[in-house]
Amino acid sequence: MTSLFSGILSKVVSPILERMLKRCEDTNLCLNWEKSHFMVKEGIVLGHKISKQWIEVDKEKVDVISKLPHPIIVKGIRSFLGHAGFYRRFIKDFSKIARPITRLLEKDTPFNFSQECVDAFQTLKRKLTENPILIAPYWDMPFELTCDASDFAIGAVLGQCQDKHFRPIHNASKTMTEAESKYTTTEIEMLAVVYAFEKFRSYLIMNKSIEFTFKVVDTKGAKNLAADHLSRLENPHQNVLDPKEINESFPLETLNLGMSSQQKSKFFKDVKHYFWDDPYLFKIYADQVIRRCVSGVEVVEIIKACQYGPTGGHHGPNYKARKMFDLGIYWPIVYRDAQNLVKNCDVCQRQSKISQKDEMPQNSIQVCEIFNVWGIDFMGPFPSSRGNKYILVAVDYLSKWVEAKTLPTNDSRVVCKFLKNIFARFGAPRAIISDRGTYFCNDQFTEIMQKYGVTHHLATPYHPQTSGQVEVSNRGLKRIMERAVGENRASWSNKLDDDLWAFRTAYKTLIGCTPYKLVYEKACHLPVELEHKAYWAIKHANFDLKTVGDHKKVQINELNELRDQAYENSLIHKEKTKRLHDSKIKNRVFNIGDRVLLFNSRLKIFSDKLKSRWSGPFTISQVFPYGTVELSQPDGPNFKFNGHRLKHYFGEDVPKLVVPDLQTFAKDHKIQGISIPGNVKTHA
Predict the structure, then answer these.
(1) Has residue 46 got a pLDDT over 50?
(2) Where in the numbering of this chain does the Integrase catalytic domain appear (predicted)?
């Protein structure tokens, strides 16, 4: 008998098993041998106990859920509903039972796990342990889909008729949204049908090429018990509204035409705060203050009186709106009108100051080779020291190496002589950056630049950040001089060489070393090392030529690596500085044709306490990269300024009484294609 059945199994089961394993191999599906079972009547698959006749829950999984304590935090509720919801197809009225618990997941709902929530929690666990059973579908038999709807929810049950009894395959229910609950009865019933077909589509449609013809049969609720019960869930909002007495007066029906239900709800909620006392309309505010509603020309008169009248004060928009409320006046867009009024007021626009937030995005000057770009500027005048009053400073943009010379005057002759000395020692650079002082903007200086093939870049007027490197070096050198001279202020010229020595041997975070080491690839020996017997001072090395040559090669390689590292450090530092700077400024965009006001520190119309430094408005005629803007004026030439000193102008033209002195802005001269206002000076 055993051999007989063995032959049948090998003929029937083996081909099927081989095809199944071949399919797994083709789809790269890996099987766990310990979890694989063959020739069994039932098995556990994805938390479900599946047999030929039915589907049950996995008792091991249910036992874990049944031992869980009730949640004490929102995260615990989500975890429990996630576990229990995995088996919701087995639990009838799952949404209705879990409703007290799911309310705690709503936004701005305080966590209070009441007795009602505890009962719901225990009911769900009990339902899972009652061994619910769903039958497996028979695909050669017709399906029966029953659905129903109520004012609150829709429900559906999919099943089949077996042994003359309806057996459920899957239960489903859904609480309607606020919009769906406003459907008509016919639309709600159709919504239940659509929901049922979407939910059970995988059962009803096995292939896209198969078409089904359905016959809709109206069944009484008494005969459609399962779906009818699922649709009649309790409405949690039915007792929220307090009963109100119906008024005898009703609003005009045409007011509701063309309004959605949400608009109608908001309209009737707002209208109860208004009342009519002929001939005026009033509104009752939350603070129980009654304010009269105004509109049209009356609004314009009131808002102008609050801004330009004797008691206006030109306050900000919030104070302005608050002042109108204190007057007992109201209209719906009072804050917007106050904002627009202050924004377009000429007087208010001319009284603000400029700050760091008004600066333009930072654009750093990145240099690849030392001594390729120099910044140059004057310091002084200082107290006379041996006939000298000024210091001419030049700084290399990459190595931060500083050259300085004491001078009795600040004119073009001494500048050209100083530059020739730098060119002879360090070579002709590619570019020199300076401010727009007359000692840098003249024919003699231009001739030197052209002779040595150097490009001369000029800083924007009143914007020393353009030549920021030399300005920073000036501050550092000045700080060293102030501490070095002490009480004898007239000795500063004698201390300059020592001050430069100190500056060149100071560590610079930007390059990661000292300027001296970056230029000469070795540390600078200081007098203090001799005094305290540093290693190099007490040891005298005697190398042969080969050893010295090998050592020099290593030094040259180290120098290249040091300069590459200095360039990378400088680039990283400047990118970090740019991110920090740009995160603190306003996002302002200037376009051609915009009208702007200019912050002019040289403008003097009133006394120091009451003067306005904003002049204009001017029109933008051209926008350059890196924040420079060219402005045009009606009665004078065009001139350039950095966007830091500009702000957009709103409103009418400025009266002639406050037109600034246009002689403040000099005529442009051209040097190597760069616009230079000749009379504007930048003091160090």
Answers:
(1) yes
(2) 357-523
